[in-house]
């Protein structure tokens, strides 16, 4: 009889988390305290990911205005990077930061106000087609992160529309004052990528923030076994998220360089 063979699917560099040991709330989270809390709050890989959609949308325009692109990026940094994430942290402190509540409220107000102000400047330059997006943007931030309307927007589809498709369309309209077929296809692609992001990040958050221990094994057809633990589950999920975030940022950078060089 062939002896039982035991393997592990955890990455070599991964260190299993022992019961009672507090995991970081996200793979990009820094140690709590001081400026590190603000880094964690910003969700750097994800913020860069969704700002890349802004660059992609703008790069599809026949002529790219650098000033309009920078203004659109700043608006989304304020609304999504700071305001939306601050609202999310106010709702139960999922990232475990020590940022005072008044600080989070202040960041939310300043971030949204700044985004609206930049949007108004954009309307003055581009025209009325930007007004619906100017109104819808803050509403999406509030509806998603405060789970308004019974959580109607706080879903995978709502996330993909708000943080995937919306930035692409806003950036294109900010450049051209109109919509076209190309940005609609790009928005659909951003939607699909954002759905994939949620499919990966949701179980990763569950394991990191709520699961105490994971113990199990899988039996191979040849009679061997593989151990299943926390890192065995988190490794593929977060590895894919890291790779995808870098991929979309590099793609957006390539488009920007090609259009602006």
Quick structural summary:
Residues 1-20 have low confidence and may be disordered. The chain has helices at 35-42, 44-59, 66-90, 101-126, 131-145, 156-176, 181-209, 230-260, and strands spanning 6-8, 216-219, 225-228.
Describe the protein's architecture and organization:
The structure is a single chain. With 261 residues, the chain is mainly alpha-helical. It has helices at residues 35-42, 44-59, 66-90, 101-126, 131-145, 156-176, 181-209, 230-260; strands spanning 6-8, 216-219, 225-228. Strands 1-3-2 form a three-stranded mixed sheet. The protein starts with 5 loop residues before the first strand and ends with a helix.
Strand content: under 5%
The succession of helices and strands, N to C, reads EHHHHHHHEEH
The outline comes out as globular
Please count the beta strands (DSSP E, at least 2 residues each): 3
Widest beta sheet: strand line-up = 1-3-2
Q: Level of helix content? A: 55-70%
Distance between the termini: 67 Å
Largest sheet: 3 strands, mixed
Task: List the main descriptive attributes of the protein structure presented here.
261 residues, 8 helices, disordered N terminus, mainly alpha, 4% strand, three-stranded mixed beta sheet, single chain
Strand and helix layout:
Elements: E1 6-8, H1 35-42, H2 44-59, H3 66-90, H4 101-126, H5 131-145, H6 156-176, H7 181-209, E2 216-219, E3 225-228, H8 230-260
């Amino acid at each position: 009889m062939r002896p039982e063979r035991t393997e592990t699917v955890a990455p070599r560099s991964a260190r299993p988390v022992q019961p009672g040991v507090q995991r970081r709330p996200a793979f990009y989270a820094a140690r709590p305290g001081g400026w590190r809390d603000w880094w964690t709050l910003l969700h750097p890989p994800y913020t860069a990911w969704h700002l890349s959609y802004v660059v992609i949308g703008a790069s599809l325009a026949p002529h790219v205005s650098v000033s309009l692109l920078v203004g659109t990026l700043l608006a989304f940094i304020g609304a999504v990077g700071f305001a939306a994430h601050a609202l999310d942290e106010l709702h139960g402190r999922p990232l475990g930061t020590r940022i005072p509540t008044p600080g989070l409220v202040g960041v939310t107000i300043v971030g949204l106000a700044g985004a609206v102000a930049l949007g108004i400047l954009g309307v003055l330059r581009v025209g009325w087609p930007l007004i619906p997006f100017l109104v819808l943007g803050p509403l999406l931030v509030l509806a998603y992160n405060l789970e308004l309307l019974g959580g109607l927007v706080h879903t995978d589809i709502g996330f993909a529309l708000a943080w995937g498709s919306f930035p692409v369309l806003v950036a294109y309209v900010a450049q051209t004052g109109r919509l076209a077929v190309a940005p609609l296809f790009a928005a659909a692609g951003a939607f699909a990528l954002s759905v994939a992001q949620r499919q990966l990040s949701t179980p990763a958050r569950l394991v990191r923030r709520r699961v105490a221990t994971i113990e199990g094994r899988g039996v191979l057809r040849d009679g061997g076994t593989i151990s299943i633990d926390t890192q065995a589950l988190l490794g593929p999920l977060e590895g894919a998220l890291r790779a995808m975030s870098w991929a979309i940022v590099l793609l957006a950078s390539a488009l920007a360089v090609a259009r602006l060089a």
